[in-house]
């Protein structure tokens, strides 16, 4: 994770999660401020109140693409930086990571854990 990505994630904005191989693709949104970055272990934790379509798609393919950005961070062509995060996901409903996220977000039913394969700056 580079510094520009981490800077973008410090600003509020939508984070979109897409199951790219589902037919049709499932798309859900959350807020960047909800996403917990586990930099040392290269994964993200995302609270899930719904996300049933994403979870159902994982039965056949758990690859996801996430998009996030901020107009507050300079990008490649001027104001605004955006990223695509490629990875694999799993839903967790127990354990220490779940307990920590449930304490912050009491409305969740599970957490989406995304192991990052690649992060690409798009703008």
UniProtKB/TrEMBL annotation:
Matching InterPro entries: Split_barrel_FMN-bd
SUPFAM superfamilies: FMN-binding split barrel
Family annotation (Gene3D superfamilies): Electron Transport, Fmn-binding Protein, Chain A
Domain of life: Bacteria
UniProt protein name: FMN-binding protein
Organism, scientific name: Loigolactobacillus backii
């Amino acid at each position: 994770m580079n510094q520009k990505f981490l800077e973008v994630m410090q600003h509020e904005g939508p984070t979109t999660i897409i199951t790219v191989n589902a037919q049709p693709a499932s798309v859900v949104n959350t807020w960047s401020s909800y996403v917990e970055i586990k930099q040392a272990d290269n994964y993200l934790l995302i609270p899930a109140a719904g996300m049933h379509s994403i979870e159902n798609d994982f039965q056949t393919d758990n690859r996801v693409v996430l998009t996030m950005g901020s107009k507050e961070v300079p990008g490649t062509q001027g104001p605004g930086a955006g990223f695509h995060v490629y990875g694999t996901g799993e839903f967790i409903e127990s354990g220490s990571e779940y307990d920590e996220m449930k304490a912050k977000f009491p409305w969740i039913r599970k957490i989406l854990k995304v192991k990052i394969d690649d992060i690409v700056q798009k703008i």
